[in-house]
Amino acid sequence: MENSDIVLEMKNISKVFPGVRALSNVDFTLRKGEIHTLMGENGAGKSTLIKVLTGVYKIDEGTIILRGNKIKISSTEEAQSHGISTVYQEVNLCANLTVAENIYIGREPMKHGSIDWKKMNTDADKLLQERLNLKIDVKKALNNYSVAVQQMVAIARAVDISKGILILDEPTSSLDEKEVKQLFKIMKKFREEGMSIIFVTHFLDQVYEVSDKLTVLRNGELVGTYDADKLPRIELVSKMIGKDYSEIEKNAKTKKEVVNKERENFIKTDKFGRIGTISPFDIEIKKGEILGFAGLLGSGRSECARAIFGIDKATSGKITINGKSYSYIYPQKAIEEGIGFCPEDRKVEGIVGDLTIRENIILALQARKGIFKYIPMKKQQEISQKYIDLLRIKTPSMEQKISNLSGGNQQKVILARWLATEPELLILDEPTRGIDIGAKNEITELILKLAKQGMTILFISSELPEVVKCCDRVIVLRDRNVIGELSGDEIEEGNIMKTIAGGATA
Ligand SMILES: Nc1ncnc2c1ncn2[C@@H]1O[C@H](COP(=O)(O)OP(=O)(O)O)[C@@H](O)[C@H]1O
Ligand SMILES: [Mg+2]
């Protein structure tokens, strides 16, 4: 392709937030009339790349060249003046203003020193009909319309501002299938008109339908840019998770027994789900098994677990726990039913930094007993000591503040908290993330040991070797749907990746 086709070049872009390199030396090239999709797991840096382009964040290093001219972008206004406009993941409109006002806010047509409402409404109507095939009453407040329509309005605004570049950051995450189709139709129409579109998604099923080019990011780094029709799905997944599929294929298969299918269910779900978070799913968790959830970051693994524990209230179907059915659950109920949950982000949801190790360990047990049945200090100390010993938590004393411990030891304290409640089912969401390799190993060994003693475990991990090592059965999720199940011998890395990728593997 000719170089004159290049509309936008981003070179060596770096952006650091406190404690995280969101982008390191990323290159990105956009050509005329292409739909260029940014891919990567949650946290890969997709939104940050968009936000430095649209002036939400300033780049620390790098160059941005627009149609041959080096430009500086230090505010959203500046980005808009260059014709760069975006529709964010979170629709950024004012729900109580009219459709027309939303489209022209900040750039209202004026007449004799005041806003020309008539022109604004006519223009808005024309814009929506001509460019988005959408006929709605533009004088009505935006909140009269569905999220899909609101998004179309946001796109109309962006298209009207943009001069040839449109950015869509996960516009499909809250749309249903039909609405996605409609959006894709519009995107293709824009492409035909010569517009260049940067599209962000982590939904595998949607990528190939519209993309010409794919740029994959991982942990803030560029993995590469590819022609969509030359990158098989399995390779795309490999690149997103940073694993070479062909290498994995060569690895020896593990020998695994299929766990007894006759085992009783501890949990069974029927079309259990939550609108906008996780599609209705039917799964079983059998007593005494280690069930794994595998999938890309953002595939819906945590969302599924959160619905089961009731952190997020389910909106459809039912869940049966130990023979009792509920249409939704909440954490207190889940705990009463014998479920424990170690959340993914222990900093936010798990540890209480100001409390001691003992207090952190006792927390869930106290909650289970109810706050009026205070656990005597002596008992608290006994329990704490038991788990400090069992999990080999490295601390001079149980009266240390938990914030003084290393990540791995903090994770063990959270684990201890739930073990102390002696749960029948323990849900572990990424229990080994961010801890050193030795501690990782101890935790996976512990999981195996607990299961041997009869505990049921739901294990979520992005580390495929851990999933293979621990699980009796693996449920695979993609794009917020449960899409497959592997058991026994089928549980090996290559198979899991193939299932995650779906579609053709060649
Ligand atoms: N405003 C911010 N402050 C601190 N960290 C941030 C901020 N925005 C993003 N990050 C971090 O930068 C990384 C990349 O995030 P993001 O670009 O949102 O990823 P993606 O859109 O691919 O899911 C993540 O680790 C995220 O936590
Ligand atoms: Mg994002």
User: What fraction, in percent, of the residue positions are helical?
Assistant: 25-40%
Distance between the termini: 27 Å
Strands ordered across the widest β-sheet: 6-9-10-3-11-12
Tell me the CATH topology of the domain at 3-243.
Rossmann fold
Unreliable residue stretches: none
What is the highest CATH level, the class of the domain at 3-243? Alpha Beta
Shape: elongated
- The total strand number stands at 23
Specify the structural class. alpha/beta
Question: C-alpha Rg, in Å?
Answer: 26 Å
Overall pLDDT metric: 89
CATH superfamily annotation of the domain at 3-243: P-loop containing nucleotide triphosphate hydrolases
Structure annotation, total helices: 18
Largest sheet descriptor: 6 strands, mixed
Bound molecules: adenosine-5'-diphosphate, magnesium ion
Strand content: 25-35%
CATH architecture of the domain at 3-243: 3-Layer(aba) Sandwich
Question: What does this entry look like structurally?
Answer:
- It is a single chain.
- By secondary structure, the protein is an alpha/beta fold.
- Among the domains are: 3-243, Rossmann fold; 346-422, no CATH class.
- Helix content is 36%, strand content 25%.
- The longest helix has 16 residues, at 117-132.
- It starts with 5 loop residues before the first strand and ends in a 5-residue tail after the last helix.
- Bound molecules: adenosine-5'-diphosphate and magnesium ion.
- Adenosine-5'-diphosphate (ADP) is lined by residues 17, 20, 22, 40, 42-48.
